[in-house]
Amino acid sequence: MQKIAKYIILALIPVLFACSDYNKVLKSKNPQVKYKKAMELYGKKDYLRAVGLYDQLRDLYKNSDSMETIYYYSAMSYYQLKDYQYASMFFKDYTDNFDKSHRFIECSYMSLYCDFLAIGSYELDQSETKNVMEALQTFTNYYPNSEYTQRCNDHLDVLRAKLQQKEYDHVQQYFKMGEFKAAVTSAKIAVKLYPDIKQREELEYLTVKAQYIYALNSIERKRKERFEEVLVNFEDYKYNNDKNSAHYNEALDYKIKAEKEIKLLKELL
Fold this sequence. Notes:
Elements: H1 2-27, H2 31-43, H3 47-60, H4 67-80, H5 84-97, H6 104-118, H7 129-142, H8 149-176, H9 180-193, H10 200-216, H11 220-240, H12 248-268
């Protein structure tokens, strides 16, 4: 047991000395010592301790030529630590302060990339998504031939897919809740906003199905008008989808049922 304890202590000695050395550098009043240590730690991928020194160096090197490098590695350290909001802020500060730098385009992109990474899964609030998409599009317009343009286009595709999934989920949610009128409206909006949405055929089918159920459960004086809307929605569905489409037969069935309901209602008048 004593031998094991001895080995543990021996193993910890380098760590303790390393921590002690780092603390000395933190407390040092020599900016060059801090700068050298920060770059050394960054090179060793010890980003957490590196960023602690960069935070100090930003105050110590104000108005210095080294400030550009310090800002850049501060931002990169936060990025490597996956603190994307802070990283984005530092990349943005970099572009604001060093607009003539050879790293300007890189940092402009990295700021946007961090904003992209900070966006959560599609189930979460996506209010910031459109702002990020607009910024990514602006970047590609300004720098169409940059090495980052294709990456921005890829990010845009991912974000657009998130928004599309969000719209699709809204339709499904309304339908499950029995809010059939809202489901129809939401489905039409989703298709109008995103013509390339992968669930387009299903959404167009749902405008037929949900409208039929909505009409069926309506008060008598509203039924005819609402069943007629089923026929309109079916024509829209048929215009965009052929007989081999996944829900064609089901949509046609609702159309036929709606026609029968309209005929019965006319006979009652």
